[in-house]
User: Fold this.
Amino acid sequence: MIREWKDSTIKRFLKEGRGQGEGATYKPWLQVQDIASQGRSTRIYSHKSQRVTHLLSDLQLYYWYLLEFDEMVLDVREQYPLLDFHEMNIPVDQELEKKLFNKKTNVPHILIVSFMVTRIDQNGDSYYEARVIKSSNDLAKKATISRLELLRRYFKKKQIGFGIVTEKDISKQLARNIGWVLTAYDIQDYPKLEANFSFLRKDLIDYLSDQSDSFQRIFQRIEKTYQLDEGLGLILFKHLVATKQIKMDLNLKIDLLKRVEEYRVELPGIVGEGEKHAISG
Assistant:
């Protein structure tokens, strides 16, 4: 853990490539092992960015779930440093200038935002937006407000949209549900699902078309048909939702005993009935 920011620390981070790159090559400026976080720190793999993501609080994790699941988001760079802040000649008063350097060492502070997000608009053009994740209680602190004002001025000059996100802006139920389905985004550890995927997908979609039935009964039915271990029906369903092959209302608390119709499940076109089941080990 970093005890004190020094010039040597900044040089080491830069040499390691932190705060640089995009997509799979990006390295966050701060990583889980570097700092004591408020709440649980998390390392989690991003299928969107194709790398391990470092999140420093539960709130960051919840917001990251929303970004990871958003089809209009191309890339997410967490703990993103404003390495060129001091080169931007941003006007600051004496009070704000105190926030720019360490009082003891006079080493410049590296300001960071929680997420630098690459999005696409309706025309397919990409653009950036910066987001800071903060507890609403922190917004009452003078030091926090000062740092946020520095960030606001920086991104205004950069012409990049800047926003502050608190727990009041995040649906925890939606975020938790997205996290729940994303655990099954990759099914390579389930060989029976992979080996029979096209048939399993077709039949599960077929069973789900009877929306008066419950999720649990449907999953049990497909497990029995294909002689799958208990729980694999649910894994298959979560995978299809995580990969957007099936859509449902993820704002609701999920109860597998409830009927499919209660979650407004949207199914793709069902494959023709001429196909037969295939079961392999």
